[in-house]
Amino acid sequence: QVQLVESGGGLVQAGGSLRLSCAASGSIFSIEHMGWYRQFPGKQRELVAIITSGDTTNYADSVKGRFTISRDNAKNTVYLQMNSLKPEDTAVYYCTADIRPGRGPVYRYWGQGTQVTVSS
Q: Can you give the pLDDT at residue 103?
Protein backbone atom coordinates (compact mmCIF):
# COMPACT_ATOMS: atom_id res chain seq x y z
CA GLN A 1 0.00 0.00 0.00
CA VAL A 2 1.30 3.44 -0.94
CA GLN A 3 0.86 6.54 1.19
CA LEU A 4 1.73 10.20 0.67
CA VAL A 5 2.23 12.27 3.82
CA GLU A 6 2.47 16.04 3.62
CA SER A 7 3.92 18.52 6.06
CA GLY A 8 4.89 22.17 6.25
CA GLY A 9 1.64 24.08 5.86
CA GLY A 10 0.58 26.82 8.22
CA LEU A 11 -0.03 30.53 8.68
CA VAL A 12 2.35 33.12 7.28
CA GLN A 13 2.25 36.84 6.59
CA ALA A 14 2.18 38.19 3.07
CA GLY A 15 5.68 38.28 1.64
CA GLY A 16 6.78 35.36 3.76
CA SER A 17 7.87 31.85 2.84
CA LEU A 18 6.82 28.29 3.52
CA ARG A 19 8.22 24.94 2.44
CA LEU A 20 5.92 22.01 1.88
CA SER A 21 7.16 18.44 1.92
CA CYS A 22 5.50 15.24 0.77
CA ALA A 23 6.99 11.81 1.39
CA ALA A 24 5.82 8.68 -0.38
CA SER A 25 6.07 5.36 1.44
CA GLY A 26 4.98 1.78 1.01
CA SER A 27 5.34 -0.64 -1.85
CA ILE A 28 7.04 1.55 -4.47
CA PHE A 29 8.80 0.22 -7.55
CA SER A 30 9.23 3.61 -9.25
CA ILE A 31 7.88 7.17 -9.15
CA GLU A 32 7.27 9.17 -12.29
CA HIS A 33 5.70 12.62 -12.10
CA MET A 34 5.33 14.31 -8.71
CA GLY A 35 3.48 17.53 -8.18
CA TRP A 36 1.43 19.94 -6.14
CA TYR A 37 -2.15 21.07 -6.62
CA ARG A 38 -4.19 23.51 -4.60
CA GLN A 39 -7.87 23.96 -3.97
CA PHE A 40 -9.68 27.18 -3.11
CA PRO A 41 -13.03 26.99 -1.28
CA GLY A 42 -15.78 26.03 -3.69
CA LYS A 43 -13.34 25.53 -6.57
CA GLN A 44 -11.76 22.56 -8.30
CA ARG A 45 -8.17 21.62 -7.64
CA GLU A 46 -5.68 23.39 -9.87
CA LEU A 47 -2.15 22.52 -10.79
CA VAL A 48 0.55 24.49 -9.01
CA ALA A 49 3.72 22.75 -10.13
CA ILE A 50 4.89 19.43 -11.46
CA ILE A 51 8.28 17.73 -11.75
CA THR A 52 9.11 14.71 -13.89
CA SER A 53 11.44 11.87 -13.04
CA GLY A 54 14.02 13.68 -15.17
CA ASP A 55 13.60 16.89 -13.12
CA THR A 56 11.74 18.81 -15.82
CA THR A 57 9.44 21.29 -14.10
CA ASN A 58 6.30 23.16 -15.04
CA TYR A 59 4.49 25.86 -13.08
CA ALA A 60 1.16 27.62 -13.08
CA ASP A 61 1.57 31.17 -14.36
CA SER A 62 0.36 32.53 -11.02
CA VAL A 63 3.31 31.06 -9.12
CA LYS A 64 6.16 31.32 -11.64
CA GLY A 65 9.17 33.06 -10.16
CA ARG A 66 7.86 32.63 -6.60
CA PHE A 67 7.49 28.87 -6.09
CA THR A 68 10.09 26.16 -6.72
CA ILE A 69 9.36 22.44 -6.92
CA SER A 70 12.09 19.88 -6.30
CA ARG A 71 12.39 16.21 -5.45
CA ASP A 72 14.72 13.87 -3.61
CA ASN A 73 14.45 10.50 -5.28
CA ALA A 74 16.44 8.75 -2.54
CA LYS A 75 13.79 9.83 -0.04
CA ASN A 76 10.77 9.55 -2.39
CA THR A 77 9.98 13.11 -1.41
CA VAL A 78 8.77 16.17 -3.29
CA TYR A 79 9.10 19.72 -1.99
CA LEU A 80 7.45 23.04 -2.77
CA GLN A 81 9.36 26.12 -1.71
CA MET A 82 6.93 29.04 -1.66
CA ASN A 83 8.37 32.55 -1.48
CA SER A 84 6.78 36.00 -1.70
CA LEU A 85 3.48 34.52 -0.61
CA LYS A 86 0.29 36.45 -1.29
CA PRO A 87 -3.13 36.26 0.39
CA GLU A 88 -4.47 34.78 -2.85
CA ASP A 89 -2.18 31.78 -2.34
CA THR A 90 -4.36 30.77 0.61
CA ALA A 91 -5.68 27.28 -0.15
CA VAL A 92 -5.41 23.62 0.72
CA TYR A 93 -2.34 22.20 -0.99
CA TYR A 94 -2.26 18.57 -2.13
CA CYS A 95 0.74 16.61 -3.31
CA THR A 96 0.42 13.95 -5.96
CA ALA A 97 2.67 11.25 -7.33
CA ASP A 98 2.39 8.83 -10.24
CA ILE A 99 3.70 5.62 -8.73
CA ARG A 100 4.31 2.15 -10.05
CA PRO A 101 3.75 -0.10 -7.01
CA GLY A 102 5.10 -3.16 -8.79
CA ARG A 103 5.97 -4.28 -12.28
CA GLY A 104 2.58 -3.16 -13.53
CA PRO A 105 0.59 -0.03 -14.26
CA VAL A 106 1.14 3.43 -12.82
CA TYR A 107 -1.38 4.85 -10.39
CA ARG A 108 -1.87 8.44 -9.21
CA TYR A 109 -1.81 8.89 -5.47
CA TRP A 110 -2.77 11.96 -3.44
CA GLY A 111 -1.73 13.35 -0.09
CA GLN A 112 -4.23 14.32 2.58
CA GLY A 113 -3.86 18.04 1.97
CA THR A 114 -2.28 20.77 4.05
CA GLN A 115 -3.70 24.22 4.72
CA VAL A 116 -1.67 27.26 3.72
CA THR A 117 -3.00 30.59 4.96
CA VAL A 118 -1.39 33.89 4.00
CA SER A 119 -2.48 36.91 6.01
CA SER A 120 -2.38 40.43 4.61
A: 81
Residues contacting 65, CB < 8 A, separation 6+? none
Angle at 88 between CA 82 and CA 89, to 5 degrees: 25
> In 27-111, where do the E strands start and end?
30-39, 46-51, 57-59, 67-72, 77-82, 91-100, 107-110
**How high is the mean pLDDT in each 10-residue block of the chain (120 residues)?**
95 98 96 97 96 97 98 97 98 98 91 97
- Is the separation of the CB atoms in 108 and 2 below 8 Å? no
Nearest in space to 96 (alpha carbons), one of 46, 43, 42, 60: 46
Q: Give CA torsion, residues 6, 12, 18, 21, to 10 deg.
A: 0
